[in-house]
Amino acid sequence: MQIKEVIDLLDAxxxxxxxxxxxxxxxxxxxxxxxxxxxxxxxxxxxxVVDEAxxxxxxxxxxxxxxxxxxxxxxxxxxxxxxxxxxxxxHDIAIYAIHxxxxxxxxxxxxxxxxxLGLINRKILIPQNNTIKKLITYAPITEAxxxxxxxxxxxxxxxxxxxxxxxxxxxxxSFRASEKAKPSVGTIGKxxxxxxxxxxxxxxxxxxxxxxxxxxxxxxxxxVAYEITTIENQNxxxxxxxxxxLPEKTEEIQFLKHxxxxxxxxxxxxxxxxxxxxxxxxxLGGSGSxxxxxxxxxxxxxxxxxxxxxxxxxxxxxxxxxxxxxHYESEQYTKNLIVSYLRKKISNxxxxxxxxxxxxxxxxxxxxxxx
Length: 371
Fold this sequence. Notes:
This protein has helices at 3-13, 47-55, 80-90, 99-103, 109-117, 141-153, 208-218, 252-262, 292-297, 327-331, 334-349, and strands spanning 26-29, 39-42, 60-63, 94-97, 120-127, 132-140, 167-176, 191-204, 226-231, 239-250, 269-270, 278-287, 302-306, 321-324, 358-360. The chain is α/β, with parallel strands linked by helices. The strands form 3 sheets. A 6-stranded mixed beta sheet has the order 5-10-12-13-14-11. A 5-stranded mixed beta sheet has the order 1-4-3-2-15, with helices on both faces. Strand 2 (39-42), helix 2 (47-55) and strand 3 form a beta-alpha-beta unit. Helix 1 packs across helix 11 (334-349). It is globular, with a radius of gyration of 25 Å. 36% of the residues are buried.
């Protein structure tokens, strides 16, 4: 199994097309055509993690956070970032970062937080904009059924939890082929009328290249008429944060103690308790202060995130509890999610790379300590 095949699996879980613009995701170090000897999954790629990969014969590190976030102009080992990259290259170890691509998928970071807290009725807190597209094309009536089947196979026609969605309408199309054309129907120099079916399908933006390639390969016309538009409908499967509900209302302090226990937290920084039970819970792993207003608008009783600043706690305004559980702590179970996913997917078609070669890093990379 090659690294590029692992990348394809990871992209199916968390397409890089949905990573935030500021992020640096994907294969940061290494050759995608290299054969995989083992996969080490970590939250952060530090020197100790590279050493662990060397010791355990893993030549691919799948990291949540990208070790290279900004441009590097020198490689002289003066910073921990340079030393990590230099050591990885020296030992032929590839590094892949998934970060906000996994933040933005419905089965990613925030879903893990919800799972640990036992939340039900989960949905995306801040759906990402401009992620749904629509294809309109035309095909001879006799070919429409087979063409749309191929488009479905390529990922078109998905709306939320439904697939094979389309709208078809029949009509008459016309065209005239020039002397340089090679028409599959009609005669050069004469206007031709063909009974055609208009096909309309929506699709997630990361499938656009595959869908257009399929359309052009499967269509019988030399020149295929089609148009693609981006639609404003909210995508409930892509976006930052999640909100869900507890099965039963829970007293505030009791819930905070439950939160502390489930995430093995030394302390929780939180705003004033409000004297009312908690039912709706909003979460956003990592730095989530930008989503305070979204959590309030969604009617959450508590918003769990990290990296809140002093004055941001005032934004609770006695309408919501803001709970900062720590950056590392909020994302700590992400690597378990990735390991579980890869073991399940890879065992299906690459038995040689057994679950024993997909390893959860035993390094605690939390840079913050408590006393």
